[in-house]
Structures are given as C-alpha cells and as structure tokens.
Amino acid sequence: MSSVKRIVAPAAIACAFAACADPRSKFDEFGRHVVDAAVEVRVDAAPVDEIPDVTGEFLLSMSPVIAPDIPFQYRATVSLDQSGDIPMLAMTLTPLHRDTREPIDGFDSTYMAEVSRAGQFDASGESTVPGEANGITGAQVDVKLTLHGIIRTEDLFCGDLEGDVVRPTRINLDGSTFAAIRIEPGTTGDALPAPVAGCPSDMPPDAGAPDAGAPDAGAPDAGAPDAGAPDA
Questions:
Q1: From CA 151, how far away is CA 194, in angstroms rounded?
Q2: Which residues fall within 8 angstroms of residue 43, CB to CB, at 6 or more apart?
Q3: What backbone torsions phi and psi does residue 190 show, to the nearest 5 degrees?
Q4: How far is the CA of 110 from the CAs of 25, 121, 184, in angstroms?
Q5: What is residue 203's predicted lDDT score, i.e. its pLDDT?
Q6: Three-state SS across the chain?
Q7: In this structure, which of 72, 179, 191, 228 has its CB flanked by the most CB atoms within 10 Å?
C-alpha cells in the first residue's frame, strides 16, 4: 500500500483560502512556489500482531502545507471493524469553530478505508470547511483529500495528506500532515487538548511492532571489553 506524495513548499498566501477578487492570479502566484521535483515514497510498515482498536471519538487536526501553524480541527467519530478478512476504518469528521472549538453542524463528511495488517490506510473523501472553521482567512472552502495514515496506538493515528482545495480556487495541499488523538466522548471547547497535527517524532515506527533496534537485554555487549580479561 505504498503511496507517492508531492511535497509543496510553504508560502505566505493568505488569499489562497479566501474568495479572492482574482483567484486565477492567486493560483498562479501559489504555483510559482511549488517545488516540482521533490517526490517522497511512503514505505509500507511491518505487519503487527494486532491492530489497535481506534473506535471512539478523536480530536483530528490537519496542518495545511500553506499555513502549518494554523491547523483545521475536527471531531472525528471513528469505527474500526476487524470482523472480516480486511479491517475497515470509517471516520465522520465534524469541523470545529476556529475560536471556540465547538462543533459546527451541517458540515459532516465521511472518510473510509481498508486497513493493512501494518495498521496503514489511505482514506479519501470530500469536505466543505465552513468559514467559522477556517483560521487562515475565514472563508468557506471545498476540499478533496486523501489521508495516508497509520494507527500507532488505541489513542493515536496520524500521517500525511494529499489533495486540493477545489473551490473557490484550486490549491494543492500535498505535503500537509494530520494527527488524531483520543478524547472523551462529548468533549468540546476549552476542555479539548491542544491539537497535534502530525506524527510525534518520538513514536515507534510501527503500530504494535517490537522495536527492532533495541539490543537483546540478555546478550553480552559485543562492543564492551571483558571485565575479567587481562588488558591486551
């Protein structure tokens, strides 16, 4: 389930998410900042004994490549069905107000995906981000996204995303990141934790897999001298 994503360089283009008077010129302006040659391949992770069950409610945050410090935040209602041969992940995303972090009704979207035995998934969907949830410009935008993620624990899944703003003007979002952290059902507003918009750097590489880099605690250290041997 390898995925290829095109990396785009961050650019200070606040109008990219707004209904600008001249969207064509703004799109061209953004296009001049796109790094056309940088392509990154996401390598499949190792299989795990058991995929962590992420059924429940999460705070899902997306960090757009054009404004990484202004994440879009959602309440994600997640179910992981492992009853069949292929585990299935379903997410209902409800946008949160950019200031109050309260759910905004009428803008739910659904993302679904098969999950590999390594806990990886590619979930695609289309969403409308209301202006109240857009902390970049406050304008309503339509997006079409694919979330390339991995389930790390029962309380965290994260990864990269690719796709586009499709209205009011087309803007490429490849190279953006996301993360979802578990919350108590019904948690909103000031009770929500701080958003996490990417995979933590200190997380192990695979969901539930043993750390291949850890030495065997029972094995002698090949690099250490024998304390009882004479000094050569």
A1: 20
A2: 2
A3: -65, -15
A4: 32, 15, 20
A5: 61
A6: CCEEEECCCCCCCHHHHCCCCCHHHHHHHHHCCCCCCCEEEECCCCCCCCCCCCCEEEEEEEECCCCCCCCEEEEEEEEEECCCCCCEEEEEEEEECCCCCCECCCCCEEEEEEECCCCEEEEEEEEEECHHHCCCCCCCEEEEEEEEEEEEECCEEEEEEEEEEEECCCEECCCEEEEEEECCCCCCHHHCCCCCCCCCCCCCCCCCCCCCCCCCCCCCCCCCCCCCCCCC
A7: 72
Neighbours of 216 (CB within 10 A): 7
- Reference 42, options 193, 216, 212, 199; nearest CA is 199
**10-residue stretch averages of pLDDT, the chain, 232 residues long:** 38 42 37 35 65 98 96 98 96 98 98 97 97 96 98 98 95 97 98 95 55 43 46 46
Please give the single-letter amino acid code of residue 12.
A
User: What are the CA-CA distances from residue 57 to residues 28, 69, 116, 217 (Å)?
Assistant: 39, 23, 21, 38
Q: Would the pTM of this model clear 0.85, i.e. be above it? A: no
Q: What is the distance between the alpha carbons of residues 74 and 108, in angstroms, rounded to a whole number?
A: 10
Strand partners, 56: 78
| 8 Å CB contact between 178 and 60 | yes
